[in-house]
Amino acid sequence: TLHRLMARANRTEPKQPPPPICDKCKHEPCLHGEVLTENNFVSGARICHISIPYIVKKTVRKIDGSKFLLELKLKPAGSSAVTDVFPRERFVFDRIDLMKYKFLCK
């Protein structure tokens, strides 16, 4: 019986660990490059404008059903660092304006 138990244990597949959740967008799989929508909005994610990638914003919070608060930051060209150029500048966007931005995780 011990032999059968060991044979069965040897045939079973090892359990795969769950994939890691992205630290930046809080999703699995990572949403890097995906368009920001009302459904995938999370607080604290870095996003950039689709046509102007050096303007980086940070999602702050959902105000109500159709309004979202974003914080403006700036990513210098050729740099991976994001600087707080306007640390107190916050802007309210509606649902349509969100679709002009994409997640910037990497």
Which properties best describe this structure?
106 residues, alpha+beta, 5-stranded antiparallel β-sheet
In short:
The protein is α+β, with helices and mostly antiparallel strands. It has helices at 2-11, 95-98; strands at 46-49, 55-62, 67-74, 90-94, 101-103. Strands 4-3-2-1-5 form a five-stranded antiparallel β-sheet.
The biggest beta sheet reads: 5 strands, antiparallel
The SS-based structural class is: alpha+beta
Beta-strand portion reads 25-35%
State the helicity in percent bands: 10-25%
Using the CA coordinates, give the radius of gyration: 21 Å
DSSP helical segment count: 2
Strand order of the largest sheet: 4-3-2-1-5
State the end-to-end CA separation.
Answer: 53 Å
Q: Sketch the topology as an H/E string, one letter per element.
A: HEEEEHE
Question: Mean pLDDT, as a whole number?
Answer: 76
Which spans have pLDDT < 50 for at least 5 consecutive residues? none
Tertiary shape: elongated
Report on this model:
By secondary structure, this protein is of the alpha+beta class. The protein contains 2 helices and 5 strands, in the order αββββαβ. The protein has helices spanning 2-11, 95-98, and strands spanning 46-49, 55-62, 67-74, 90-94, 101-103. A 5-stranded antiparallel beta sheet has the order 4-3-2-1-5. The longest helix has 10 residues, at 2-11. The chain is elongated, with a radius of gyration of 21 Å. The protein starts with a helix and ends with a strand.
